[in-house]
Amino acid sequence: MIDAGVLKAEWTKFSSIRSTMVLSAATAAVAGLLGWLFSSTAAKEYATATPQERLDFQPLDLGMRGVFIVQLLVAALGVLVASSEYGSGTMRATLAAVSSRGRLLAAKCGITVLTALPVSVAAVWLMFATSQMTLSAGGAPAVMPGDPVALRLLLFGPLVLTLLALFGLSLGFLLRGTAAAANVSTAFLLLPVMAGASPGFLRDLIGVYWPSMAALQAVSGKSELPGALGFGLLAGFVAVMLVAAYVQLKNRDA
C-alpha cells in the first residue's frame, strides 16, 4: 500500500527539484519537435517517390520514429526520482523518516507513475498530432486518430513509456547515481536500434524479444508476438527490476 503522507512528501521533493520539472516539460516539447522533423523529411521523400515507394509508405511508422528518443527522456525521469536523493545526500534522512523501506519504494513508484503517465500521454499524442498534420500538409498520406493501429498506439504507447520510467527508477536505486543509471538505461533502450548490424539470429532475437522493443512493437502492430505477450515481457521485466531495487534498498544503507 502507498502511504498518502509519504506520497505527498515525495511529491514535494519531486516538484522542488528543478531538473525533474524541466525534463518533464522538455519531454513533451521534444516529442512534438521530433514528430515535425521526421514527418517533414518523410513528406519531402514522398513527393519524389516512385509509385511502388508510395504504396509502401507508412505514415504512422515514419511520423512516430522519435519515440525511440522520447523513451530515453522518460526513463531518465524515473532515474531522477531515485538518484537525485543519493546525489544530494538526502536519502539517509528520507530513510530515517520513513519506517518501512517498502513504503518508500511504493511511494517513489507512485510519484513516478503520476508524473510519467501524463508526460507520456502528452508526448505520444503531441508527436502523433504534429507528425500526421505535417504529413497531410506536405501532400503525403496521414493517419487519423480513429484508425485501429493509431488508436492502440495512442492508448497503450503512454503505458509502455510509463513502464520504462519505472525501469529508470529501479536503476536509480540499484546504481545510486544519475549518470550511471542514465547511461545504463540509454544503452539498454538503444541496443535494439543498433542491433541491425548484428548477425541475423541475434538481430531477430533482440528485435522480437527485447523487453522494450517487444512492447513498442506490440502497440504499433508490428510485433511477431501476440500483443499481450509483447507488453507482458516489458511488464514482467520491470517487475523483476523493481524487486531487485527493493532488495538493494532494504539491505544496504544510504
Task: Please explain how this structure is put together.
The chain crosses the membrane at residues 21-42, 62-83, 104-129, 149-175, 187-210, 230-249. Keywords: Membrane, Transmembrane, Transmembrane helix. This is ABC-type transport system involved in multi-copper enzyme maturation permease subunit. By secondary structure, the chain is mainly alpha-helical. The chain has one domain (4-251). Helix content is 82%, strand content 0%. It has 12 helices and no strands. The chain has helices spanning 4-16, 18-47, 51-55, 59-63, 67-88, 91-97, 101-137, 148-175, 178-194, 200-209, 211-220, 227-251. The longest helix has 37 residues, at 101-137. It is elongated. It starts with a helix and ends with a helix. The mean pLDDT is 88.
Keywords:
mainly alpha, 254 residues, 12 helices, single chain, elongated
Topology:
Blueprint: H1 4-16, H2 18-47, H3 51-55, H4 59-63, H5 67-88, H6 91-97, H7 101-137, H8 148-175, H9 178-194, H10 200-209, H11 211-220, H12 227-251
Helix pairs in contact: 1-7, 2-5, 2-7, 5-7, 5-8, 5-9, 7-8, 8-9, 8-11, 8-12, 10-11, 11-12
